[in-house]
Design brief:
Layout (H helix, E strand, L loop, with lengths): L2 H21 L13 E8 H12 L10 E9 L17 H5 L8 H10 L8 H14 L13 E4 H11 L8 E5 L4 E8 L10 H5 L6 E4 L7
Antiparallel strand pairs: 1-2, 1-5, 3-6, 4-5
Length: 222
């Protein structure tokens, strides 16, 4: 057999393999339980509603939410796993409804389980117990629980407020995030067993670069 056809065949196979690799979705090959720590993401609901939720007619935006759980994310030192394979079927409605006091919407709960919860190595029930445990371990500064009027805030002041309200929480264990003008989230890093906070340089590196940001008021006359 001529070496030319053989080389062409090998080259074609290599190109096909490269195409498959490029087409593989993010998180492809991730395994449940293969992560280093958790990130609890608390979203400032009024900012979400002003930026996106109102346009989507999200029911979340009709309720007087302040900080809500966006998700509990398994994280690696660099990057994170996503959409891990799971034998769990459809989330039971009762389990979803039990989360609505801290997660603001059905769709968000389902999405967070599929993208992040499946990589925790936990059952759905245990994953949401873990999310609640992390949420209850964080004390939101009193000034943000009932924000009756909108205000500009210093990003450093928000971070300091969370640190003072949560003894042992250091600057490199959290990140305040923003969009082009609004405060969006507080991301706090926990150990795998949720026994305490831990440093997370990559998460902290994605923190808001603005000195001041806007916080829309809590809705519904709270």
């Amino acid at each position: 057999m001529s070496t030319v056809p053989a080389l062409r065949t090998a080259r074609a196979a290599a190109l096909a393999l490269a195409a498959l690799v490029q087409a593989a979705p993010a998180g492809a090959g991730d395994r449940p339980g293969d992560f280093d720590f958790y990130v609890l993401s608390l979203s400032w609901s009024p900012s979400y509603c002003e930026a996106e939720g109102d346009r989507r007619r999200d029911a979340q935006c009709e309720r007087p939410f302040s900080f809500v759980v966006h998700g509990l994310w398994p994280q690696r030192e660099r990057g994170y796993p996503a959409d891990c394979p799971t034998a769990a079927g459809r989330l039971p409605d009762a389990l979803i409804r039990a989360q609505l006091d801290i997660f603001p919407a059905f769709g968000l709960i389902i999405h967070q389980w599929r993208k992040h919860g499946t990589c925790s190595g936990l059952t759905p029930a245990d994953y949401f117990k873990a999310a609640r445990r992390a949420y209850e371990a964080v004390r939101v500064p009193a000034e943000f629980e009932r924000l009756a009027s909108p205000r500009m805030v210093g990003v450093g002041d928000v971070e300091d407020g969370f640190r003072k309200s949560n003894p042992g929480l250091d600057p490199d264990e959290m990140a305040v995030t923003c969009d082009d003008r609004r405060l969006r989230e507080i991301r706090i890093c926990f150990t795998r067993d949720l026994s305490g906070f831990r440093s997370c340089p990559e998460v902290d590196g994605d923190a808001c670069r603005r000195s001041r940001v806007f916080m829309p008021a809590v809705r519904g006359g709270r």
